[in-house]
Amino acid sequence: MSLDxxxxxxxxxxxxxxxxxxxxxASKLFSLCLxxxxxxxxxxxxxxxxxxxxxxKMDQYKNKGxxxxxLKRITINTVLQQYRTQKVFEITNENIVEExxxxxxxxxxxxxxxxxxxxxxxxRYRLVFNLYVxxxxxxxxxxEMLEINTGTSKSNLARARNILxxxxxxxxxxxxLKSL
Length: 180
Prior knowledge:
Shape: globular
Organism: Siansivirga zeaxanthinifaciens CC-SAMT-1
Domain RNA polymerase sigma-70 region: 21-87
Family: Belongs to the sigma-70 factor family. ECF subfamily.
CATH architecture of the largest domain: Orthogonal Bundle
Structural class: mainly alpha
Number of strands: 0
Protein name: RNA polymerase sigma-70 factor
CATH topology of the largest domain: Rna Polymerase Sigma Factor, Chain: A
Strand content: under 5%
Distance between the termini: 59 Å
GO molecular function: DNA binding; sigma factor activity
C-alpha cells in the first residue's frame, strides 16, 4: 500500500492503517520526542499524545508538502504545548547572556552523553536549544511556537550553551583526571 493510500485510510479512521502508520513513523517521532522531553518515560507519553493528535487532525493534511514534516511539526507542537501549559517560560529578567561558542570534540563525547546533558537542561533552555540548534528554527519562529518574545529565546539559547559548555568542560577534566 502506498503512503497516499495509507493516509486516506487513516483519514477514515481505519485502525489497521493507523497501526501501520504508527509502525512506519514511531521510531523517528520517538527520537524527536526524546530530544524535547526530560526523560525516556516522558518521551513515550509525548509520542502517544502526538499520535492521538495526528490521528485526530489527519483531515487537515492536504497532501501538500512533506507528510513526514507535517508529522514532525505536530509532534513538536504537542510536546511544546505541555510546556506552555506548565508556564516554564515565565522569566523576569531577559538580559541577554553573552553568546558562547560551543565546541564539541566528537571523539571524546558520545552521542548518548550529549543527549543526556541536553535532556538535563532546564525545560526552557532545552526546548529553545533543540529548536534552534538541532531543528533549525529561527528565534522569531521559536518565540511564536513557545509564546515568548525573541529576546527570551536568544537569552535562553545563550544560557543553554553556557550550561552545556560548563558541563562538557567539567566532564573533560574528570575524564582527564581518571586517565592519570
